[in-house]
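Quick one: structure tokens for this chain, please?
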Amino acid sequence: MAICNGRTVIITGAGGGLGRAYALAFAAEGANVVINDIRAEAAQDVAGEIVASGGRAIASSDDITTLDSAQRIVDAALAAFGEVHVLVNNAGVLRDRMFISLSEEDWDLVMRVHLKGHYCLANILGRRWRDLAKAGTPVAARIINTSSGAGLQGSIGQSNYSAAKGGIASLTLVQAAELARYGVTANALAPAARTAMTESAMPEVVKRPEDGSFDAWAPENVAPLVVWLGSELSAKVTGQVFESQGGRISLGDGWRTGVTRDKGAAWRVEEVGAAVEAILAEAPMAQKVWGS
């Protein structure tokens, strides 16, 4: 039995790349799919592809970065399918520059699309799911956000993108904690795949293999994890960040308390340098910078 029968999913940025792969995979598992993309023709093409194969889908080109336009996406989903059970926040943009070369416009656009784009639909749907739960209607809803390796580890030339993606990882933790009582889980992905963004940033790295070998950068490789997270089978998994690329699924460990020095009293300024040096010497990830 398909694991998403009767469930409705909204996927942003679904006109190509990872979003398209997610949409096709959800449809194959019985979901009703709302294909959102600012490129109206691309959204319609993916929706048409799903419908032609016997699935159920509608296209939306409404903006995800305002509450009013995000509400139109939700309203269209409700009108077509009756309820929304899953949100996949996938849409994104790049404006890569070294930090001191970033314009205000470069910064604001990336923050708006990534961070505010993750806020608007989730806020509208979160309020809906809360109200349903409080009214006694069982809720098994899912928020699936998109972070990035750049957000977890930083990336030279992508300070705006890295900051936004790191913010999304933190947002996911808060959503998971706050919404659990209403039957909502929130998880994030840090996917690595061939998309319009990665092809523009590192075309030689993500190109298709010419020898017919396993295509580790195919976006379809990430889709099964996303579909499973969107199903009712994933009810016990929340507040996690998963990295996925090729045939690999990893759990992002994130920031946590690491090597510690505790003298049991306040540190004097002249003592701090030696303490920090000792801490960094024991921290494997820090050695690359400290020892360079």
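Strands lie at 8-12, 32-36, 56-60, 86-88, 141-146, 184-191, 241-245, 248-251.
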